[in-house]
Design a protein that fits this description.
Strand 1 and strand 2 form a beta hairpin. The protein is mainly α. A two-stranded antiparallel ribbon has the order 1-2. The radius of gyration is 20 Å and the shape is elongated. The chain has four helices and two strands. The protein has one domain. The longest helix is centred in the first third of the chain and has 33 residues.
Length: about 120
């Protein structure tokens, strides 16, 4: 009987810790994203890559047109495809996708990181 109670308490405390981590981590990340009206860091590059992908009928071009610098299109394709797909088929703005999709994925990883430790 005592083991069951201890197990329940540990489970409830783990749930509280995970929910607290998601809320705190989400709040910190959301404030960072909302501090700008545009995608942060390499957002301009990925915006251009998504536009290049759409312009090339979803075939991967050899180079991106970002800053006319002939940067090879050698970045992970899946996120760029997802953003371009959302824009073309659901009308989701590219800038909004580039701002909020990474935020959503980043916050959703928090519980998994908890279980690694």
């Amino acid at each position: 009987m005592k083991n069951k109670i201890t197990h329940i308490v540990q489970t409830k405390s783990e749930v509280i810790i995970i929910i607290s981590a998601i809320l705190l981590g989400g709040w910190i990340r959301l404030n960072y994203v909302l501090s700008a009206d545009f995608p942060l860091n390499d957002g301009g590059l990925f915006y251009t890559m998504a536009r290049d992908l759409i312009a090339n009928n979803f075939k991967v071009p050899l180079f991106t047109t970002y800053n006319q610098a002939n940067i090879p299109f050698a970045y992970p394709f899946l996120p760029v495809y997802c953003i371009a797909f959302l824009n073309q088929f659901f009308g989701v703005d590219l800038l909004d996708s580039l701002r909020f999709l990474p935020l959503i994925f980043n916050i959703s990883v928090i519980p998994f990181v908890y279980f690694l430790f």
